[in-house]
Amino acid sequence: MNKRFFRLAALVMLTAVWTSGNAQSLLENLTFEAPKQMVRPNGASINVRTKPSKSAPKVKWPDSPWDLTISKNEVYNAQSENAAWYNIGIGWISKSAARKVTSAPITDKMLNRFFGWSDGYDLWQEYLVSKTKSKYDLMVYYTQSDRQNKLYLGKQVGNVLVFKYSVVFTIEVADNEAPNYMNLAAEDRDGTKYYTLTIGSNYVQQVVQGGMGMTKTLDFSKLNDKVLERIFQEVIKSNRTDYLYINSLLLSGAYANYMLG
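Below the sequence we write its predicted structure tokens.
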């Protein structure tokens, strides 16, 4: 089999997977739990402690000696609390440095556009939330930051978007390929799997990003259940959860430094 025929055969297979709308039990059985109470830091960032005490050790980044800090540009689920501390799952934060927040309804105008924040040249994040073509009303959250790009899978629960699974994810636009071209590749690096989705023009949308004009990215509204399962099946089957919560404040510019698109 020559290389050109093999490539065309692979493209046909991927296109069939992309366009198929058959239900997948792996996604059908997913559950997304409503947060008990949303909280956010007051200052630019605060430390997370292993126990509800200022003398307790600080939580570290996974596989790192560096202290984990959380940002005022994000919200967290307070799973429990005592008189002076919130337990946000990954550790404890002081009530003197955080506050409770409420969530207004999320509107369609808040979706499918980039928001961003920056606390300096080396600390920034841009993110986009979109509905998908999933029959289970699943949604995705695509984030680009100074650390890495990730794609989350979740669902709206009340007035909060609950994202439960994530993969390290990069999108590339193949301008020289056929409009229906797509290819999902994965690479293992030091125990972490990196996914790259390369797409043709039929799956591209243009959005304003970073104050630098229009940029091309994936039209996430075209992701169906077959594609979502292919991307997230490994983390779902192994139950590697990575909870993240988005509410109307994060999608209205209340916390973001700027809105795009």
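The CA atoms of residues 5 and 62 lie 44 Å apart.
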